[in-house]
Amino acid sequence: MLKTIRIGILLFLLLFVMLSTWLTQARSTDWNDSLWVKIYPINADGATETARYIERLEPQTFAAIETFMAEEAERYGRTVSRPVRIELGREIGEQPPTVGEQPNMLDVMLWSLKMRWWVGSVTDGQDRIEPDVSIFVRYHQPRGNPRLEDSVGVQKGMFGIVNGYTGRSYGGTNNVIIAHELLHTLGASDKYDRATGLPNVPDGIAEPDRSPLYPQRYAEIMGGRVPLSANDAAIPRSLSFARIGPATAAEIRLRD
Q1: Does residue 250 contact residue 189 with C-beta atoms inside 8 Å?
Q2: Which site from 18, 32, 84, 110 is most exposed, i.e. has the minimal number of CB atoms within 10 Å?
Q3: Could you give the domains of the chain?
Q4: How far is CA 123 from the centre of its chain?
């Protein structure tokens, strides 16, 4: 009985959250005004070098995301001059909650609620007004090329957790991942095969009408990679090599 009541309360809370999120989502993708996105760095590995890198971060580090979104909005006929406005927050000293290795539905529901509380609690001291989207970038040292946890963008809550490497040479790829997760928060879906990592055809292709189809010049941002052939694709070095494809543009209401 207690378990049933507990689940019922969780479902009620999630229904309330979903309604609130739907209203926020509708406003965030009308593209009439700038979308306020705030990036909060986190020292994920505790290394001194990572701390120093975070200290040197500046808003210009993420300017390519603003440029990318402005160029793509213009390409789809939107007239807002600055569709996304990026700000850099202060470093967050806590790690986000984890969902576990093999979560069930209840675990995911609990994690979602914990994350919403965590996002509010760790940013409360620096944000009197909440941004539209909160992105937390967990920085790691690239030594030994450690495998990073998957990044995630959550539409119900408008937040993202990005795992990236420190160093100027990784700034471009970090921005690609941030942009990918940002679009998840706006309703965009992944457009690649999880087993192979290859972009789906045609929705994961930036230029699906290109002839010949391969090699592509750009990565579709939610496809994740630049398709070089039917069985080969490369990770884009920066957002200069990425585009928002028609299917993704429709999902985030950038096009009709």
Answers
A1: no
A2: 32
A3: 2-13+30-187 (3.40.390), 190-256 (no CATH)
A4: 18
In this structure, what token pair is assigned to residue 131? 């941004």
Confidence of residue 174 (pLDDT cuts 50, 70, 90): very high
Query: Are the CB atoms for 72 and 244 separated by under 8 Å?
Result: yes
Which are the contacts of 18, defined by CB distance < 8 A and separation ≥ 6? 156
- Look at phi and psi of residue 216 and say left if phi exceeds 0, alpha if psi is from -120 to 50, else beta: beta
Average pLDDT score over residue span 190-206 = 96
Residues 6+ apart with CB under 8 A from 185: 133, 153, 154, 155, 157, 158, 159, 160
CA angle (197, 119, 125) in 5-degree steps: 140
Tell me the angle at which helices 63-75 and 171-185 cross, rounded to the nearest 10 degrees: 50
pTM: 0.89
**Look-up: residue for tokens 């609990």?**
110
Mean pLDDT of all residues in the chain?
A: 90
In this predicted structure, which of 21-30, 45-54, 127-136 has the lowest mean pLDDT? Answer: 21-30
